[in-house]
Amino acid sequence: MLRTQQPRFQGLDPGHRACQGCGQALAARLTLEAAGPDILLANATGCLEVFTTAWPESAWRVPYLHSVFANAAAVAAGMEAALKAQGKDVKVIALAGDGGTFDIGFQALSGMLERGHDVLFVCYDNEAYMNTGVQRSGSTPHAASTTTSPAGVARMGKRHLKKDILAIIAAHHIPYAATASVAYPADLRKKVRRALQVAGPSFLQVHSPCPLGWGHGSELSIEIARLAVQTGLFPLIELERGALVGAMPIRQIHPVTDYLKPQSRFRHLFAGDPRAREELAHLQALADHNIEAYGLRGEMPDGLDSEGADTVRRGGLRSA
Amino acid sequence: MRQALEGSQAIARAVALCRPQVVAAYPITPQTHIVENIAKLVADAQFQCEFVSVESEFSAASVVLGAACAGSRAYTASASQGIMLMSEVLYNIAGLRVPLVLTCANRAVSAPINIWNDQQDSMAVRDAGWLQLYCADNQEAVDTTIQAFRIAERCELPVMVCVDGFTLTHTLEPLELPSQEAVDAFLPPYAFSRALDPRAPLSLGTLVGPDYFTESRYLHHQAVLAAENEIIAAARDWSSISGRTSAPLIRIDGSDEATVGILTLGSVFGTLLDARDHYGGAPVKILHLRAFRPFPVEALRAATKGLSDLIVLERAISPGADGIVAAEVRSALMDADAPPRVHNFAAGLGGRDVPLTIYPRLLEAIGKPQPRMIPIDLDRDQWPAAADAQ
Amino acid sequence: MPIMTPGAFAYPGTSLAFKTGGWRTARPVHRWVPAPCHAGCPAGEDPCGYVGLVAEGNIKGAWERLVASNPLPAVTGRVCDHPCESACHRGSYDSPIAIHNVERWLGDEAAREAWEYPLPPLPAGAKTVAVVGAGPGGLSCAYHLRRLGIKATVIDRLPLAGGTLRTALPGYRLPREVLDRELERLMATVSFLPHTSLGRDVALEELLHDYAAVFLAPGRQQPHAWDVDGRVPRDLHAALPLLEEWVAFGKVPEIHSAVVVGGGNSAIDMARVLARTGAKVHLVTHDVRPAPGVPRAVAMKAAPRDIQQAEEEGVVLHLEHAIHHLILRGEKVVGVELVRVKKLARDDGHYEIVPFEGTETVLHVDQVIPAVGQKVAPEGMESLLAARGFFAVDDAGRIPGHDGLFAGGDARVGAWGTVSGAVGDGRRAALAIEAYLSGQPHGLERHPEPIQFSGLNLNYFEHAPRGEEVLLPPDGRVGTAEIAAGLSGQEVALEVARCLSCGTCMACDNCWTVCPDQAVLKMQSPAGMRYLTDYDYCKGCGLCAHECPVGFIAMVEESS
After folding, report:
1. Quick one: how far is CA C201 from the chain centroid?
2. What pLDDT score was predicted for residue C130?
3. Contacts of A155 (CB under 8 A, 6+ apart)
4. Does residue A115 have a pLDDT over 50?
5. Shortest CB distance from B54 goes to which of A58, A80, A111?
6. Which subunits sit against C, judged by 3+ Cβ pairs under 8 A?
7. Whole-angstrom distance, CA of residue C442 vs CA of residue A224
8. Which residues in chain A are closer than 8 Å to B66, comparing Cβ atoms?
9. Does residue C7 sit at the B interface (CB-CB below 8 Å)?
């Protein structure tokens, strides 16, 4: 059967109930391809858990444990401790959304990092509580409209900033932390492999568009994710022991409006409201700040910059 | 070999004898001495395990959950607020049917904050789906801890071993600690049928919708009920190895001629035995409800057969609904032939001393109509008069 | 009914039982949309296809794909004005693929390796068709008939086949040995009657009687009459005979300075040939330089490359100029008066040449050589020629009202006037002849719209410079030494890697990579369909289509 003969590891089977064009489903699939079968997964409550494990079915082909919302990092830590005690060379990956990472799961995450467990924690960042109906989270970008930060006469969406989770993670001085995006699958897989190589805790924040929550067509998930990188709003960076060791240069920097406009969560910023201009300028300033702070401006075309990193080749030699 | 040990130290050594591979804990009074002792055993290389000092009880429960699912025997201990904080995970562990052992060093629950002993904490999670075994003394704590691992692993259910904080955990008692050989003969190496394994990758913790949820919950309920057999078997088998008798479900002390019984859980059992010796009088049967989950309905009916009055003395209250244990006892005995009248008192909340003098007061109370639970040691002098008027 | 498990655990991969395909409102389908190079090739070549095969390392397959439409790639790779490259979408990204060099390299490889055309055996009782004219149009038709299992007999007035390829194309553009090599392979597949002129040696009626059908591709042999205000210099030379003289014998009458009139290949070649003899050469044309976006009607017909080389060789261009007046001393030219003109579109779409008073200038030259085109030499087929002296045919090459008669190449109304155009005419006529012979109805060839540039997803491509072939320096361009060196195999490999594969799957794995549902399955077979959409699970999100770099996947609404 063709499906069983695919030349890549398939850890997440179809038949899962993710929405059309789900960034998180894609990100998880890519993560597992890079990680391979010798892993244990600990998953926080969230869309990923819900859409993959409707009993009696499961889409997973790797050992999988979902406990509760806040404890993915701690469960993973326990798995790791057990494997260590048993002397087994099996990697442990914790999977959580931004809620399970930035907010409710943060304490357990911080503890796991501090204790130095050999665990890769992957945050699928779709910037709100999607599973419960698009409520704002600590990861929701400034000015985005959600069901608990709706835009209205008195408000222009979320009043607060997106939490700089990577800086907080970096402060734990762990061996490896990085951001990645579904728009750059090869880069994402490379980072998963790198994270699994290092001994000790590692962290990956994967920008994963949610067509339903962000309000864009399901076919645009990758396009939107790519624009997040190309505008500077979601820098792709790598940190070792808290120090910046890599950043994907942006060859052609797009204005943030290229990213914001196709998403209905930012629709109010384009409705002619005078305050919207200020918010747009604010978001542009945040992007400019990222570009400055991480040195994202590409000096010259580079095979690994925002334009070069996702090229394809005839015959499918795109690295898997 | 009989030796004088602090309860916590004895429990720690019993845990070590069971060879868990992962111990995770967060410090909370009065559990601290248990985990400190385990940490010291590990530090002194007397015990090999991954000792994970987590950042919260929530994570402690989560770490042992992960470890047990990943194929290692795991243990944790907590109390009071810690039990509250881990309660979400406690439900989860039970629902996942994961074998684990947790020592609850019983303590009052805030507010007002109070670090001393009662049993409000374990009672608060009685519906979590764990087995709950209460210990009357430190020998029982040692023996129950060892049995708990076997029960948990055979039933694929978590076991909470409830030990009164301070009263037991911080008290030096002469007791027998078994040999490693004895424990090894009783407790086989850890095995969990659903352990996570890349070669047989199961998915644990699935989403179960309305179509299947009742079956899942009822299956869990049945498993807890059926655990009674394993509790009995463990007590029997451990007795034959240790040479100590130990009552599996209900510990009974007193003559069958008695028409009055007093039922309690935990260390108050010993107090009541001493009081009975001290005061004498008509025969009274003293019962210690060792197994609270599963609730041993048949054993209770048998133990109370022939009693006219049964006093339930408990150390937690369900505000607005009397005592928790008494309500369950009443419910269990309701259909029995000629059930005893059940009287309900609380005592020793938040560490208040339960003195011998409580014994005659309990017996006095039988004659008076007292349909609702009251704390028998309530101090009227500090009681706001206005409260009675309400 | 599933049986409840302890803790409600589930077995791996059991979600396969849940078919999410039912959610779909639109389905991704693989579509084959022509690449613009394909749509832009008068010969009907599919460069996107053979470039892709070269990129996959299947060189022989690429050549076979190529000769499925054009039997003369070594020739056209050198002399074609390659409209495919003007159409190439890569031109809108950085610079077009050097398709002509790939084509030329394939033709040369085939010669080096002595590959044979992949032809089916002739069926018993195969019919024979007469082809008049052994130029590219006639030879193409004969070859394609043979591919279709029909014999062809080619007649030509000349002793050797090749038509204008042989008589009028200078060796510096098309070395004689390249032509001979390629024609040798082709002529082995057809019968050839040389020294046979229609009208003189054989009558059209005889051909119609003796053969199952006749294809007329006589080319244009007779120069148009030319004058300025009715005045013609006494020693006027038309370009074509002069060019043929140079091609055949390597020399022309001594001319010191000349103005060549016209903007086509003959004009440019004439100018370059004269420049090689040491003459001072001017070229006057109404047209502008061909470039992307310039309408065909106002662009010089010569290829940009040849125009540029002519300039390098000293030819002075006077674009958008016309000869206003001949300056004669007696009947001999001593100069011309030029005027600036512009071709302006009229309301009916035709262009009108408008001269601008006050822009006159004088050139002192001793020859004026018109290269303003030729017409069909009518002998033997006078009755068939339409009003302006050409065959009026439909798109399939059929001459309306004359069953069994077909025509094409330069001799038809609206001819491309290029080798590749003639090759295409021959191929289309062969198809129509096959239909005619078998009594089948023959629809006109359909030309589906090529994929739009906006249909590609350029995020997946990287800029890369176009491979440029080495040219002889202008002072080294003497005689018939070939100017363009072509690309090496290695350079060709780099060049084909630049192809955007417009509308054609290039097996890049992107759809396989981006599907969140693993509904795209990679096929194991090296050829044919590379991916299968598993509609049991495809939810129709459209990611594969949107992210397909080459526009190969389209979302089609599900019928409810």
Report:
1. 33
2. 97
3. A149
4. yes
5. A111
6. A, B
7. 49
8. 42, 65, 67, 74-82
9. yes
Give strand ranges (E) for A48-182. Answer: 64-66, 91-97, 119-125, 176-181
Which of B24, B69, B208 minimises the CB distance to A55? B208
Contacts of C11 in chain B (CB under 8 A): 202-203
- Cβ contact, residue pair C6, B223, below 8 Å: yes
What's the gap in Å between the CA of A68 and the closest CA on chain B? 7
Nearest CA in chain A to B76: A78
* pLDDT at site A17: 98
Tokens of B305: 């057969």
**Residue B93 identity (one-letter amino acid):** I
Name the β-bridge partners of C6: none
What pLDDT is attached to residue A319? 45
Least confident of A170-184, B306-320, C142-156, C217-231: C217-231
ipTM over 0.90: yes
- Give the residue from chain C lying closest to A56, CA to CA: C10
CB pairs under 8 A between A and B: 168
Give the closest residue to C451 by CA, choosing from C89, C98, C96.
C89
Which residues from chain C sit within 8 angstroms of residue B197, using beta carbons?
A: none
Contacts of C506 in chain A (CB under 8 A): 312, 314-315
> A140 vs A130, A136, A285, CA distance in Å?
11, 6, 17
Query: Which residues lie below 8 Å from residue C256, measured CB to CB, with a gap of 6+?
Result: C279, C280, C366
Predicted structure pTM score: 0.91
Q: Are B19 and A68 in contact (CB under 8 A)?
A: no
pLDDT more than 70, % of chain C: 99
Domain spans of chain A, in order of start: 2-294
pLDDT digits (tens, 9 = 90+) for C207-237: 999 999 999 999 998 888 888 888 888 888 8
C interface test, pick of B97, B196, B213 with most C CB neighbours within 10 Å: B97
Which residues in chain C touch residue A66, judged by CB atoms under 8 angstroms apart?
none
CA dihedral over C228, C230, C234, C239, signed as positive or negative: positive
Q: Which of B201, B204, B215 sits opposite C4 (nearest CB)?
A: B215
Angle at CA A69, nearest 5°, toward A63 and A71? 70
Which residue segments constitute the domains of chain B, with CATH numbers given? 2-242 (3.40.50.970), 252-380 (3.40.50.920)
> Which runs of consecutive H residues, i.e. helices, occur in chain A?
23-35, 47-52, 72-86, 106-115, 165-170, 185-197, 221-231, 256-260, 274-294
pLDDT tens, position by position, A271-315 = 988 899 999 999 999 999 999 999 999 988 888 999 999 899 888
Mean pLDDT confidence for C437-455: 86
- Contact predicate A250/A297, CB 8 Å: yes
- Asked if the Cβ–Cβ distance from C4 to B156 is below 8 Å, we say no
What is the fold of A2-294?
A: Rossmann fold (3.40.50)
Answer yes or no: do A315 and C56 touch at CB < 8 A: yes
Given a cut of 70, is residue A215 above it in pLDDT?
A: yes
When the pLDDT of each residue in chain B is averaged and rounded to a whole number, the result is 96
Structural domains of chain C, ranges and CATH numbers in brackets: 12-32+505-557 (3.30.70.20), 36-117+452-497 (1.10.1060.10), 128-221+376-438 (3.50.50.60), 225-372 (3.50.50.60)
CB within 8 Å: A71 and B67: no
Cβ contact, residue pair C8, B216, below 8 Å: yes
The reply to whether C16 touches chain B by the CB within 8 Å rule is: no
Q: Which residue of C has its CA nearest to B218?
A: C4
* Per-residue model confidence (pLDDT) at position C527: 60
Question: Å from C5 to nearest chain B CA?
Answer: 7
The per-residue pLDDT for A320 is 41
Residues of chain B where predicted confidence (pLDDT) is lower than 70: 389-390
The tens digit of pLDDT for each residue in C367-394 reads: 999 998 888 888 888 888 887 788 999 9
